[in-house]
Amino acid sequence: AQSVTQLDSQVPVFEEAPVELRCNYSSSVSVYLFWYVQYPNQGLQLLLKYLSGSTLVESINGFEAEFNKSQTSFHLRKPSVHISDTAEYFCAVSYSGAGSYQLTFGKGTKLSVIP
Amino acid sequence: NAGVTQTPKFRVLKTGQSMTLLCAQDMNHEYMYWYRQDPGMGLRLIHYSVGEGTTAKGEVPDGYNVSRLKKQNFLLGLESAAPSQTSVYFCASQGQGNYGYTFGSGTRLTVV
After folding, report:
1. Which of A60, A113, A63 is nearest to A84 (CA)?
2. Residues in B touching A48 (Cβ below 8 Å)
3. pLDDT, tens digit, for every residue of B22-64?
4. Between chains, do A101 and B104 touch, taking CB under 8 Å as contact?
């Protein structure tokens, strides 16, 4: 069965410090990978996605994630976080060739940025 | 561009009451999903639909029913609400060939 593991349920970090949120998925031949962000009391919004091509993908607000096929990982990073980055982050994977594009989600990582 | 709209946004039910949550999308998406979100549990799939007139069970379907009579709408019903169904419910839609979801803003349901 498909699975996504987010290794940290909570990550506290000081403002302007770097952060990495980890995500690993169960191995498959071809995958599509996503990070979603959920701000307090809101729905989930797509942050960035990997479909093909360059293994490094970026968002408009400074986050980036790198697809690493050998390690089956898609870790999310930001070199300097802001208070406004406080949110819950969900990693998700879709397996191509399964006849469905249904996403499997990790359990989420709560990022708390400390002033 | 409304995207995915969920109604209502908040609801309090008494145990045993019934209700229907409505999800409407205006993007002509084929696939629609209902999730519930509980602390520490992430998102759990309740039911989903791959097209008008079709529905299928997800990970936690018990106590819920769904219908997709029109392509743009996906209804989630609770026939006899229980306190264990207290949760935040999210609807999502997905187009064919579009590999990501668009989420609604959620419905916060409390069953007392």
Report:
1. A113
2. none
3. 999 999 999 999 999 998 888 999 999 999 999 999 999 999 9
4. no
